[in-house]
Design goal:
A hairpin with a 5-residue loop joins strand 1 and strand 2. The protein is of the alpha+beta class. It has a 3-stranded antiparallel beta sheet. It has 2 helices and 3 strands; from the N terminus they run E-E-E-H-H. The protein is elongated, with a radius of gyration of 14 Å.
Length: about 70
């Protein structure tokens, strides 16, 4: 049994982004969602950029920053 987390950057604009987190368990090659979707919205401000840097992997963080042109 393997636990995976999927992150989706949704509604990414130059001013904001919505981050969707979903957890899945993989049993015999089949993914099944565990728990509820968790969605948080962030704006292009210094405090939210700091939160995103802590919570997202470098790949996702850099994608947001590319759109936010920081």
């Amino acid at each position: 049994m393997e636990l995976k987390e999927k992150i989706t950057l949704d509604m990414l604009t130059k001013d904001s982004v919505s981050v969707l987190r979903q957890k899945f368990v993989v049993i015999d090659g089949t993914e099944m969602q565990v728990g509820e979707n968790v969605r948080n919205a962030y704006t292009n401000c210094e405090s939210d950029r700091a939160i995103l840097k802590e919570q997202l992997s470098e790949e996702y963080y850099n994608a947001v920053m590319a759109v936010w042109e920081v």
